[in-house]
Batch of 2 targets.
Target 1
Amino acid sequence: MTTAPFGTVAVEPFGDSAVMVTVPHAEQAVRRSAIVAFRDRFLAHRPHGVLDVVSGLESLLIEFDPLRTAPEHVEYAVRLLARWAPGDGPELPRTVREFAVPVVFDEETGPDLESVAEEVGLHPAEVVEAIAKSTFTVALLGAAMAPMMDGLELPAPVRRRAEPRTDVAPGAIMIAGDNAIIQPFPGPTGWRVVGRTPHTIVDISRPDPVSFGPGDVMRFVPVTRDEAAALDAGFLLPVEVSL
Amino acid sequence: MTTVTTATATARKTVAMKTVALEFTGTGWSTTFQDLGRRDTERRGVPTGGAADQHSAVVANLLVGNPRGATLIENLGGELALVPDADVLLAVTGAPARVTVGGAPVESWSPLVVPKGHEVRVHADVGRGTRTYLAVNGTLTAETLLGSAAPDARMGFTQHVTRGSRVLLDTEFQGFRRRLFEPPLFRLPVPVPRFDEGPWVVDVVASHGIHAIPGIREVIEEAEYVVTPRSNHVGLRLEGPVLHPDTDVEIVSHGVPVGALQIPHADELIVLGRYRSLTAGYPIVGVASRACLPLLGQAGPGRRLRFRWTDRESSLRRFARREAEVCALEHAVAEAFAALGFETSLPDSS
């Protein structure tokens, strides 16, 4: 995953105390995997004065304290780090956690299943099957720590809803493009809602409210409503940890 | 005074810590625990959040000898009132407000000794600014999420302080042995911002999205915008003229700095606040200067705003000047309190 080339990066100032880094490349897949690899490397060698980074799908926003550093210094560090060939620097070995997430896919939990099926030319049951067969990789944590994942394998990318839903239940499994995301708290979304897991995805009473991070792998396991109820599902935990 | 000197290796002087209860006899439209926000959580999808007006929050804490990032109270609208069950040192900052202790008017933006059993009332002039901050010397007992007491509504972490609640405070404050109605305790160089009646002017640094919309620079510079009631902690929604890009280039989800000026499809301009998340689809034409963010945090519905384009260097010079004023206050407070035999947190301890 960290073999994508990012010898050339684009660094652009964004306001008076941030820069935006992107990896220019014709292929979307390369742009996306390269920025994930770059983010890991940048965080492992965080320059002085950098306060936080925000991952986008194809970009990294680097926020810094303008009284302790300057955009020129941040840009210099970014370019130095980017110039290392993959495997050149002391890349950290990464532990990948794997999750098997039980999901109820029915008309009530997945109100968009049918319209998605129609859109991609499948039967709703075939959409569920395709979702269950897909291996999702957490690309980044979205709003409120929601796991935003790549890896949805359907015949065509899924469009967002024209009219966003206003109140989607926590645990909702949602798809758009070739991405999937799990809704951690009740709220609005423009994503297509296809199922729901009985697990708690984000628990704010825990010191670390989530058990997953970028690079982790999730699979969705279809279960019936009764099976879901019998699970007594609590906080979502990984099934196994592999290196 | 029960001052005990311990024989530790550092020979640190320890002062008796006591727990004081603050009884909230009145709260505003929204009264919450607050601080300067979360650090290093944005890459995990949790916005920094924190005080909308960071300058007022920092100054409130410094005026009572706290570290800049100590937990304090943020109040939006209405009237905030509380009664301590022991003498406390507190300060009120933020939007212009009528502050009374035991019914007598006192100054805001100044340290105040509030005697045991006296009620403090803070009534802000919402037309001039939306938020007031109340800091008390010591540590307020509040829950935290990812290391911060700042609310995060999206994650169900509301941090509301309700009327009738008793909030506990651990403080070493022993009193200055003076009466309330003597002249102000100190003459401190307090950087008090102006809250003008007329339109507030906000400096903006242009960003790449501006090239996607020919003529937007001139439109924004010449127009006056009004904050609408649809505004919230995620962003200020402004009514006023905008233009849209004529191309349909896809903008994928990306991070944005606080203060970003976004033009959605509708006929409005959004200034994103400290609780913004990833954004997609809409162009960002500029980012408000860091020095102007506290003012934006005070803008409420009806507030008129004008934007002035600036370059990054000028923007940062202005921010550095303001920071120098805050540092000067930090040192003056440390000296003044030390002269009274009262320890403050040393600068940089946050």
Target 2
Amino acid sequence: MLELEWIASKHAGRVRSQDARAPKYTMADKRPSDSKINSDLLAPVNHPGWGWYATVVVSGLVVLAAVGALGYQFTLGLGVWGINRPVFWALDITNFVFWIGISHAGTLISAILRVTGAEWRRPVTRCAEAITVFALMIGAMFPIIHLGRPWFFYWLVPYPNERGLWPNFRSPLAWDFFAINTYLLGSIIYLYLPLIPDLALLRDKSRGALRRIYGVFSLGWRGTQLQWDRLERAVRVMAVVIIPVAVSVHTIVSWDFAMTIRPMWHSTMFGPYFVAGAIFSGIAALILAMAIIRRVFHLEEYLRPIHFNNLGLLLLTMSLIWFYFTFGEYLTSWYGNEPEEMAVFNSKISGPYAPLFWGTVVCCFAIPAPMLAIKRFRTIKGTMIASALVVIGMWFERFLIIVPTLTHPRFTFNWGSYKPTWVELTLTAGTFGYFVLLYAIFTRLFPIIAVWEYKEGLPLGEHGEPTIVGTPDVEYESA
Amino acid sequence: MTEERKSNKPRWAMVIDLDRCTGCEACVVACRVENNIPTVGPEEAAKGRSINWIRIERYFEGEFPDLKVKFMPVLCQHCEEAPCEPVCPVYATYHTDEGLNAQVYNRCVGTRYCANNCPYTVRFFNFFDPKWDAPLDKALNPEVSVRTRGVMEKCTFCIQRIRKGEEKAKDEGREVRDGDVVPACVQTCTTKAMYFGNIADPESEVSRLSKSNRASRLLEDLGTKPKVIYLNKGD
Amino acid sequence: MKRREFIILSGVGATSASLLSACGHPEEKLIPAFIPDEEFVPGIDYWKASTCGMCPAGCGIIVRTREHKANKIEGNPFHPVNRGALCARGQAGLEVLYNPDRIKGPMKRVGERGDGKWEEISWDEGIKMLADKLREVDPTAYNDQALFVTTDSRGVTAHVGHRLMEACRKGAYVVWPLFNEVGAETSYSTGYRSATVFDLANSTYLISFGARFLETWHSPVMYSQAYGEFRGSSGKTRGRFIHVEPRMSMTAANADEWLAPTPGTEYLVALGLAQVIVRENLYKSPASAAFGNELGEYAPENTAAITDIPTEKFIRLAREFAKAERPLAIGALPANAMPAVTLLNTLVDNLNKKGGVLLPSRHNEYYGPLKMLAPRDSFMELSHTKFAEARKMHAWRVMMIHRFNPVFATPAIREEILTIPFIASFSTFMDETTELADLVLPDHSDLERWDLKSSYPTSGGMVVSVTQPVIELQCNTRQTADVLLALARDLGGEAAAALPYESAEEIVKKGAADFAAHWGQPDAETAWSELAERGFAAAVEEFRANTYATKDQLNTTLLSGLQLKAALEEDPDYPLTALIYEQLWQGDGSFANLPALQELPDPMTSAMWGAWVEINPQTAQSLGLKDGDLVDVQTRTGAVRLPALLYPGIRPNVVAIPFGQGHLAYGRYANQRGANPASLFPPSQSGPHLESTSRARVVKAAGRGELTRFGTELQEQMEKRR
């Protein structure tokens, strides 16, 4: 009902009456002026501040180091990594799974919140959607970087070619190719669509070449009713479509493991387990990103404790779900007591990987779950700490899914061990640096909080005049 | 691909008698020489990157003084239902119509997925370009391609010798028979613990031995249908 | 050109081009991408027969060549010794031929000895230099001598070298036996030394006293094949195999039952078994009863405490052995302990019987006209002790060293060798001894030279195997026998008269052809062409059951050399026993420069590229050692630092070190790898001709050692399996 009314309200000349059901506390209690909102939300674009520059320089240096490491690796071969026989995958695939997991922040959260019409989502969606696109870009690099002969990565691409060979569609890696590309494309569209009105706003507020660029990307947005209708419809369709795509992506990533016959990989619940873990780490990443943005760009009025509270509750839910899956996964292995499974199991529970394993449990469940369950700790700082732990914990969780299974092949004669080299560690640091860099650049180019979406959710103006949602500086045409 | 469906083609298989295998590793060196397998050197070997298409796995049972040892030569099992094959995204590993599990080095991009899905851990990766200090490269076998860095490799059942044996049989206008094809490891085996032949031919030695009550295959319960058959230790 | 030829040629071109492309010529790449290996058209190979030179066993080989490059060695399928098979060592033979560290040509020293400064010289100059030195030897002075030290006791070098040294009057041709000669020299202390073979294949119950016949004893490939048949071939029951050795060697690992007595007491186990057989009247030869009294002392009840083998085990094994259909005992014990093994065979009366000890009766006739291969007693045998003693008596003026590296085998000998005024080395590689030489006249590798080798297959008779060049010369080397001939010509007089040959090739061709003609070929010319193709000629004899020597052996004096005592004196400061052993893969250390063997995982420990100390996990625990910890093994003579390897197959309180690593020269693959345990043993004992034992202690050193394994750490693996 709510949704229908909401849609109906759009058709009423973009005029929105005071909606008693709109929770007041998610937004400013009093409607600030349009120009204040504009200046606040566009401040990062116009006046980034020294913090922004410092971030770009530091992350840029980390990225440069990683590019150097990558060049070194491409020149000499994968031998510069710590991988060996039988540990053929390690940090490469850990980073792949981790970043694809992080990418679930956005799309899934923003899409679910949009579809369910959660009003408090408004300042959160863009943050989340941007995370998705960048995390996905970084995650998707790894299947290429980790190849023995990365210069032949295009052999994985299905197109009629002189080699007379299509990719092997039976391989989960080929499925990955489709899933990740679909998701990346979908996520970019899903980020881009709600960006259009804000691009128009930026166009109108900028001069010269920048104005032209924003102009091109705003696709001639003028805020007409028809444009609004189309945009709304497109966003809603994308929101619905992106959810199964996102679920499928991490399911297919999990199938890279689950389709094999390796002990502790070959598991039917890996799909939902990975998706849950992905959303879990995604929310944590989102909370961290929001907290930093809030602080750096002084958006305290826009990103309020209530957002962190709500996301904290979501994080708590995911933490419980994650624990449930982990518990279920390990209990069944332990109860089944198959020697090959137990070799992997023991190495994690009590063997060389025990510190990492229990650290992960502490980071992903033992600390965040009680912390987030208690309202007193569900503050901005509290959720931030919990999120940081979860991000770290989930990275190690990915590592622990991959490496202990590989170090324990079925025949004990071939057991191995793994130690990363500086190249892998630099690349890993580089992914974080690259993410921060991309994100920082994004905030410099586009408002990180969707201006129109925020305004749309505001209560009516002080004098009861209808709030006009559109490009604010354009003359209001007709009611 | 079942054995029946391609019955007109030979199905190459190996039998290894564990009662005869002494673990002397002549096969390991013979394989290295025949198949241009590089030595990776002490530093790389310490990282677990040395390549042995065939290896002797050794298992201890019991404690001093009642200690027992089992030697088990392990090479690519050339599974009929090979787990490595479906996971390769570029068809670098695939099933030939003679039932061999082939690796086309030129196609390989090095995802290493096949190695991860091999329950026998018999696939090897070239972490760096292979290197032979001159003039050791003169000893390379011209019939076996040298693998560059970034590609997987593994036992081929000495495909070059199979080709040679088949050509010879064709020239003589007959089907292949026992003795036409002898892989390097089987050829050098000091105790004659290894046999190689066409298991589709009921008259062959491997067919006969595969029916022995000592015969078993590695990890049979995985359903990979290996074509290396082990004859268990007697006694 | 026929279509088929074209296809074959393009196949050759394509495959070799693919190799070239891998070696840095991508422009020559002809194979289009994506043609699977199985679609290549194979080229045509050329095979040439020769003889493996990696150990004295004399296995026949065939070498595959293509475009003037040898690319594979295989066993000669017709050769009666190895019947097509070849061991790991033999398979690695090409790495000797193409080794990057070979000495490229003759050199003379320019710096101080051991400085490693050399000047390339011509062969003529080198030969003249050595000839001049030999001329300086004063034939009238009692203690002025030239010395030729080698490990070759038979074959062309021995023939030429011996004659030359005799002609020099004051020259001595000296044989310094290696590991591999141990078995051959002492395995059967009576009867013919090296012609004795053991019919393992047909035996049904085999007890081996330290004879690692699958690795290093006598002829590993020949006995491995026999072992295969012993284990079961159609129509034969599975033989039972007992191995007695304090450390579980690969051979021991294959035994049905492994007995690990206190080191040095293996012979007591043999005597204990004999005592039980005699007292229970289980012997088969009637004269055996005479041993009753002499053996009383060795009753298992008396020796169990020393050997640490329970009495019940003695009794059970003695009964099994005596009652077996075709029992056989073999051993590789010190010469004075070997009678104990002989005694067991005598008791079960297996001489010249199926599955027993085979002594060929017409042994001396085998050689026919080929006298150069006959065993010669006149060779002086040298060991470190003898060397030190002899050094006092003779002022050796010139020492020539051939296929032997005494400075590695006995590091303490270095100083004594340095006192010799002139040293010429014929080594193919720059080893520790050659580093001290004044003149280096590098020998061919085994695949480039001419030689003859005799060996005794279990099928009976004798085989003469031809070593012939299979490939053109790789370096500016010259066969030592040819150098010696040139030397004789230069010296002139007696020396030249004693050696009227053109070349080693001539000697080999004539000798082999004469031998073949003697044993059934119509004429020498046909004989040679066939020989060259087959690679060997055989003198065939069926073993006949006879009673030869049985009476002689049943002599109670047989036991007089034996004493009932523990092998080593107790030493409170050194509570452990250290022993060194030879591996098939490293031999006496002369294979440490072959990467294929360095990177070959040891089958028992899975270790490669180095050396280690094997310690029983119990002992390690009591010493607080973990796998891979660096330890110092100390004896009263010396110490080595190596990583500890926790090895379940060794007696507690015994540590074992493989011999062969720890080179301080010898090329890039061998140099500075692991440690040489030879220094642990007093010079009188050490040297690779005896697998030594000594009292020792193990002290933990700081840090972790470099212990590289192909497989998993043994201990982890065992614990996890439980």
